[in-house]
Amino acid sequence: MTTASCDHDQRKIDNIELRYGNAVFKVFFRKPIASRKHDILYHLHHFYELHFCLGGSYVYTLENKEVTLSQSQMLIIPPGVNHSSLKFHTSDNYIGFVFQFSLQRSNDSYDFFDYFKDTLDTSAQKAILLPMPLIQQFAELSTMEAPRNLKSYCNITATTYTLLFEMFDAINNYSSHIDMLSLEQDPENMLFKLNGLVNLHELSLKHIAAELNYSERHAARLIKQIYNSSLTEIYKENMKIDQYLMQKNEKGNHQDE
After folding, report:
1. What CA–CA distance (Å, rounded) separates 82 from 64?
2. Distance (Å) of CA 230 to CA 128, 211, 236
3. What SS3 state is found at 222?
4. Mean of the per-residue pLDDT values for the chain?
């Protein structure tokens, strides 16, 4: 395990190694960015790159689609995905930072690799809403200087270890410890749009998530919180109601005859 300060490329904490069973992370942080002064041309990485937004908004181009990142949101860019960003797509009040890591499988008997890998891959390339306090804690961590002694190294490693787990927990278990609706930028508009999509009856969760610019996990949790039912359960209940009304109509028509 090595650590170093790399001011030439804005890195503050370099190559912190974390192990969760057989899942091995090597973590890198960069300084918070107050604004984009230059265009970032198409490029790719061989590691995961996470963008966090503390304020304002920012537009990323990933392969052939655009994703807008707003306050309290995170974007996961997987290894091998071409991406770029243009400075004129950045709001004047944009504040964000980047968190990078590689993920590898080891031979440890505790098999957690698939949990982390599946979460990353299913939540990637979409704006993911996170609790603002969690993003702020990541931001504080990203401003720390590279550790200069054993004590500071242990402190940074322990903090990173905890925050990384909390991030995955937040992605997978929002409704268990946070009111997702309270984190929406425009909850009334979002509710109106979601209700319209759900009432179309035939849309898949994937389609609804795309319309809301959320991951499928995020959309599913939001639907569960608002309707207290899964999308499948809602559709089944709506089908029962439709069948009942249809039978009632047919019975009324027979009586009229």
Report:
1. 9
2. 20, 18, 10
3. helix
4. 78
Q: Which positions ≥6 away from 10 have C-beta within 8 Å?
A: 30, 31
49-58, 99-108, 112-121, 185-194: least confidently modelled range = 185-194
| CA-based max dimension of the chain | 91
CA distance linking residue 6 with residue 26, whole number of Å: 16
Give pLDDT tens digits for 9-22.
Answer: 444 566 788 999 99
pTM of the model as a whole: 0.64
CA–CA distance, 132 with 147 (Å, rounded to integer): 26
Phi, psi of 162 (to 5 degrees): -70, -45
Residue 29 host element (H or E): strand 23-30
The residues facing 74 across adjacent strands are 52, 128
Query: Are β-strands 40-43 and 11-20 bridged in parallel, bridged antiparallel, or unpaired?
Result: unpaired
- Look-up of token digits 């944009």: 94
Q: Which two tokens stand for residue 57?
A: 């908004």
Q: Give CA–CA dist 235/95, Å, rounded.
A: 40
CB 201 within 8 A of CB 238: yes
